[in-house]
Amino acid sequence: MALMRLVRNISTRRLVALCAAVVGLLAGATAFAIAATGGGPKPPPEALPVAVHDALTAPQPEGVTARIQFTNHMLSSSDLQGGSPLLSGASGRLWASSDGHVRLELQADASAESGGTSDTQVISDGKQVTVYDSGSNTVYRAALPAADAKDSGAAATEQPPSVEQIKNAIARLMDHATVGAAVPSNVAGQPAYTVRIGPKQDGGLVGGAELAWDAVHGAPLRVAIYAKGDSSPVLELKVTDISYGPVSPSAFDVNPPAGAKVTDLSPSSGGQGDHGDTAPVTGLGNVQQQVSFPVAAPSTLAGMPQSEVRLIQSGKDAGALVTYGSGPGGIAVLEQAANPNASTTPSGGDHSQLTLPSVSINGVQGEELDTPLGTMVRFQRDGIQYTVLGSVPPATAQAAARALP
Q1: Is there a contact between 306 and 322 (Cβ–Cβ < 8 Å)?
Q2: Cβ-Cβ contacts under 8 Å for 225 (sequence gap 6 or more)
Q3: Number of other CB atoms surrounding residue 349 within 10 Å
Q4: Residue 230 C-alpha from the chain's centroid
Q5: What does the angle CA 398 – CA 226 – CA 218 come to, to the nearest 5 degrees?
Q6: In a designed cystine with 388, which of 17, 83, 344, 377 is the match (CB 3.0 to 4.6 A)?
Q7: Residue 276: CB partners within 8 Å, gap ≥ 6?
Q8: Which residues have C-beta within 8 Å of that of residue 312, sequence separation ≥ 6?
Q9: Which residues, in sequence order, are bridge partners of residue 141?
Q10: What's the predicted TM-score (pTM) here?
Q11: How far apart are CA 34 and CA 187, in angstroms?
Q12: Domains and CATH numbers, the chain
């Protein structure tokens, strides 16, 4: 799988930037972002099921043009050097059309060393997504899952759920999460509703998320993610100005420079685990038969029981994903054969924008990424690269890494 090769070879700075890009794209493609609640007209109070139903049945706008602000507090200023918009946050613009085209443009002031400003473009036509980071002159491309013809036909004739159906769906959601009321608000001058959702059980370091949508047009308007115990969002995409109407096709006609480095994240053709219709390979014994290294899969890790061992790629790049616990507060361990040509220095040898603390894992030097929403510890030992991820404090991630046999 292309993602497997990327995780092995990509520097930590680019890995973090790519993760942030995905967050930005999902927010941009499904939410036309929001500005902080301010003055202006507010919609009348409505029960949440009614407000959601009204949004789902509102006429779809032909397009959206907006000025946006992206906030990213995942990294501290001591870790971050340079001006990548995906790492430091930025202002920019967003265009979206009813036929599935989306363009998200972010610009941030860069350091004198990196020269001027840094620009990031996220473009999608509904079939492929392209992310271009001018700071590294790198393009990431990925094909989006194609809709099944049968499902597409059903979707075309499917009616929006009734208020009662929405009410029942919210009740089921509340078995696992706390769901607030639809709070009347005003977002970028538009009457809107805002709702907060939080984990009811073990949410790890995630405190909750907020979503706002236009009460008239039905378009989602705000995405914000909060860390536990923090009233300020860690990640937020918001609009400072928004308008509805047709968008010129030229707004989506953007091509990266011819000399940019291209990384294709699309699944490769063929191979176990490359397609969603292929049964996954699970279980320690089955996975061990298809990888070239001994899989470390203790029955418990950091006090959490093992939940699954899964093959994530076949062939020479075969690797294993071992998960522990359940929900956002669990831990995942990605194991793969180490690339002998890859740098073993912290941050993958790329210090232009991100420097990470080193951490000792049983005498082996690794690197640690500590954020308000979770921790990553990565190290190599005996020809195997281990990546420990979880919405857990650094001490928990380090303990899990050191407990791997």
Answers
A1: yes
A2: 206, 208, 209, 233, 234, 235, 236, 373
A3: 11
A4: 20
A5: 140
A6: 377
A7: 145
A8: 1, 4, 273, 318, 319, 320, 321, 334
A9: 130, 264
A10: 0.75
A11: 6
A12: 2-252 (2.50.20.10), 271-403 (3.40.1000)
